[in-house]
Automatic annotation (TrEMBL):
The keyword Transmembrane is annotated on this UniProt entry: yes
Protein name, as recorded: Guanidinium exporter
Gene that this sequence comes from: sugE
Top-level taxonomy: Bacteria, Pseudomonadati, Pseudomonadota, Alphaproteobacteria, Hyphomicrobiales
Transmembrane region(s): 33-50, 59-78, 84-103
Record's keyword terms, sorted: Cell membrane, Membrane, Transmembrane, Transmembrane helix, Transport
PANTHER family, A to Z: GUANIDINIUM EXPORTER, SMR FAMILY PROTON-DEPENDENT DRUG EFFLUX TRANSPORTER SUGE
Keyword set includes Thylakoid: no
Length: 105
């Protein structure tokens, strides 16, 4: 179950990272509130997952999910470049996440 909590925490991390773009420097109330709520939920779920997962593994996977999701959504939502090198690097992060999952059982 810890991996499920960790995956959900990672999804909420993506939510707050993308949400930051919509807050316009925290000057827009609704996007700002949603971003802060997403931050809180993400950290709470990470904390639950870390009850049983090693902190190094949990934190690395959490940030990896957030990094990959945010980079992909940046490409889709904000027309950020999808260069071959960038996609390879995203793939390497995914490989690292999977490697940590396999290494921890």
């Amino acid at each position: 179950m810890a991996w499920t909590w960790l995956a959900l925490a990672g999804l909420f991390e993506i939510g707050w990272a993308i949400g930051l773009k919509y807050t316009d420097g925290f000057t827009r109330p609704v996007p700002s509130a949603l971003t802060v709520v997403s931050m809180i939920i993400s950290v709470l779920l990470l904390g639950i997952a870390l009850k049983t997962l090693p902190v190094g593994t949990g934190y690395a996977v959490w940030t990896g999910i957030g990094t990959v999701g945010t980079a992909i959504l940046g490409i889709i939502l904000f027309n950020e470049p999808a260069t071959a090198m960038r996609l390879v690097c995203i793939g390497l992060i995914v490989a690292g996440i999977l490697g940590l999952k396999l290494a921890s059982g």
